[in-house]
Amino acid sequence: QKEVEQNSGPLSVPEGAIASLNCTYSDRGSQSFFWYRQYSGKSPELIMFIYSNGDKEDGRFTAQLNKASQYVSLLIRDSQPSDSATYLCAVNRRDDKIIFGKGTRLHILP
Amino acid sequence: NAGVMQNPRHLVRRRGQEARLRCSPMKGHSHVYWYRQLPEEGLKFMVYLQKENIIDESGMPKERFSAEFPKEGPSILRIQQVVRGDSAAYFCASSLGTGEYEQYFGPGTRLTVT
Predict the structure, then answer these.
(1) What pLDDT does B100 receive?
(2) Residue B105 contacts A, CB cutoff 8 Å
């Protein structure tokens, strides 16, 4: 089992709809979870982080964490074409190393 | 601009030459991480450094690659005798600490080996 697993996509979502990105992780001791957005040819940009079970909202973004299921997700409401990018899930292991998933390509259809 | 800075942004080297990539962390950050990313691939951790210390180099190839973060000045990733397979984007990130501390990325250095 990969340490951090994401569906590579592409995930196509109509403009204005909700985009749902999912990530699972293998280390039960993980405490911190991050979502990065990476546009083609650019560096990753931190958009959300979550440490506790439940939901965390920031503008159009909501991160959801379920430690029992070892699952973290990112919801993007009212999707815009500018949201088209690769979204990287990152998880810190109990040894404090942060492991990145390979990313999900999101394509917002105008 | 208090963000993570990397230079050069683009670097072209011939096979066998040396490549030096520099990273200045965000103001107030003392933890630096280097990652490599191949086209259409994920980020691969290479090395984690604090000032004057290598904390974790488990992702670094055993030969030709080295990294440092001196007391003064930027962190440097050095690749000796580059080969075509070293062509990639190299990203530096910095954080206040480990674990729950967020990492912020620089713009990257695109290395091309001809």
Answers:
(1) 64
(2) yes
